[in-house]
Amino acid sequence: MKERRDTYNVNVGGVVIGSSEPVRIQSMTNTPTEDSLATANQIKELTDAGSELVRVTVNNEISAKNIIRIREILYKSNYTVPIIGDFHYNAHTLLSAYPETAAALDKYRLNPGNIGGLNKFDDNFAQIIAIAIKNDKPVRIGGNWGSLSRQYLENTIVNGGKSADYESIIKEGLIDSVLKSAKYAEDLGLQSDKIILSCKVSSVSQLVDVYSEIATKCKYPLHLGLTEAGMGDNAVISSVAAISILLNEGIGDTIRVSLTPDKMGIRTKEVEVCKDILSSLNLKQFKPKVISCPGCGRTSSNYFIDLTKDINKHIDNNMLEWKSKYIGVENINIAVMGCIVNGPGESKHANIGISLPGTNESPSAPVFIDGEKVTTLKGDHIRDDFIKLVEEYISKKYKKVS
Ligand code: SF4
């Protein structure tokens, strides 16, 4: 993995986004912000799932007013997660009309494609930036290819812009639009370390292309994510591919996986995917990792599958308690392997690992702890005995929370 690209560090309500900090996970509510309770509850769910910042739609007067109520509900339950206001079209009007909301939000997300046409953009944008400066708030200047300024596209195509190729026009347009807006914000007096950029598109290769280029052109932290990634496995795979490629290149300071949910109101899946991305890249581990083989013709039964499921379930059921008791328990690696071909080798690399007997192998399961074979489990209680060994390992290895 390449070294992180050097960026400014932007403080968003106490959570710093930038190259000196871990890559931050964020998400966005899909409840109507007019419903303060539902929105506050979803913010809590997202926070509990691991979202370090949460964005909410601020699209009308009621939602703008409700930010204050949502904050109150969250504070009462000790939730201090930074809240980002997502504005389109009317940020200047709402932020001016509701100064308490402008003060309560931790960041404003602006889309230069819909702040106002060429005639109004400058004034509206200047109004928003003045409010950000007054309240000492950062902004994300977030371009999206779906709302790239029509005037820009027409000018570029009709007036013989740099390229007639549609993809290049989109790329140049997005980068140009966010960088010019950032420069304008700085000219208006906003500090460099109050600006985060994003350039969202919905194709993996284009996203990689756009971010690889913008990363060379500025020092602002970058918010990564595919827009409109879709639903189900395809959406997850596309998001994982795009975000992982960029993070591996050292590009990206905060990530969001945008998924169409199975049902309105269910939103935590996108946070889980973000955590899986960071953990598979070894950027941050959130819970013990279970390394298991896929099984093959040597696998003698479903036992290794069932044991893998049981270990994962045991981790999920106990993680909260373990975290409250043991420092660093999330970093443990547990291997559950189907036979001795790769089993002992993989087990030695893990903190604790077991190799179940494959076809025609002796019905015993060697267990390795920190690279050494410590025992061989046999009989009908291999599952329980192995879970007991995992528990013992955790209690001995990890320092207790004082
Ligand atoms: S460890 Fe054994 S059972 Fe698992 S995939 Fe490899 S050869 Fe097959």
Order of helices and strands: EEEHEHEHHEHEHHEHEHEHEHEHEEEH
- Helix and strand composition category: alpha/beta
Radius of gyration over C-alpha positions, nearest whole angstrom: 25 Å
CATH homologous superfamily caption of the largest domain: Dihydropteroate synthase-like
N- and C-termini, Cα separation: 35 Å
Distinct compounds present = iron/sulfur cluster
Low-confidence stretches: none
CATH architecture of the largest domain: Alpha-Beta Barrel
Q: Determine the fraction of residues in helical runs and give it as a percent range.
A: 40-55%
Which CATH C-level class of the largest domain is it? Alpha Beta
What is the number of beta strands? 15
Structure description:
There is one protein chain. The protein is of the alpha/beta class and 402 residues long. The chain folds into two domains: 10-280, TIM Barrel; 289-397, 2-Layer Sandwich (Sulfite Reductase Hemoprotein, domain 1). The chain has helices at 36-49, 61-76, 91-97, 99-104, 118-135, 150-158, 166-187, 204-214, 232-248, 269-280, 303-325, 343-349, 382-397; strands at residues 10-12, 15-17, 24-28, 53-57, 83-86, 107-110, 139-144, 195-200, 223-224, 254-255, 289-292, 333-337, 352-355, 365-369, 372-377. The protein is elongated and about 80 Å long. The two termini are 35 Å apart. The model has no long low-confidence stretch (mean pLDDT 92). Residues 293-296, 298-299, 337-339, 341-343, 358 line the site of iron/sulfur cluster (SF4).
